[in-house]
Queue: 2 jobs
Job 1
Amino acid sequence: MLAYALNNTSVSKSGIYFNDPKKLKIFIETFSFMTPKSSWRAITLYHQNSVVLNEWESALKSIKKKQGKKSKSKSKLAQGAVRLEFISPNEEKLKKQYGYKKY
């Protein structure tokens, strides 16, 4: 799972990219001993027409969510995706101190 995380990150976007809810669930469960669910934020991508929406919802249970890119209203059914981000325990302090407004 660590190799997956290292191979599915980007320098232009924060977080780890998942296009399979089963892999996301396994990743969260694997690292739950050191990173609780409350320390994650999921940016959902194209979930409106996802054929596995119930699986995404199950994998993201108890995780903070923000809606990212939306599906077009006339788009075909799709898988959807998630970008999973770690939430720093100091996030609120850093946002105030440096004026960050991302979330």
Job 2
Amino acid sequence: MSALFLDQLINFFNGSIVHFTSFEAFKSIYEDKAIKPNIDAKYSSPFGRYKPYFASKGCVSFFDFRELEKSTGNVGSCNPITILNQTGRLVALELSKTKYSSLISWEDCKIHGLNGCNIVPNLEVGFRGDVSLGDISKICVITKPKVYSARLQIKILS
């Protein structure tokens, strides 16, 4: 079922750049009016204890779904469905296209080295510093169905 849910998410956000978070973490984002980089692992991660490359650079990580044929094969352990399976819902924040030029490619690590950090090739991109909610074009709450169903429930908040 997780693979089916992942396919639905990828198809829904096809062509977009998205930050996924838990509903609990979204409450802090909403209060702060920004997504903040997870420097020093201040915020818990549903993806386990690892050292994210972009966080080490003071960036917020996003999933880049602009080129699906390159990106989807690399979801692996950073699968956003992990959040959905743990909590029953997740929040997706879609980055405004006007901010795409500010993104740092995953290929940055080829120049600067990983230095013990992890990155998801062809999928993960970074945005240096805080991402204002004003730079988010769409916020969606995604809920796992309560009964056996093949469809995620996606509610667009903005």
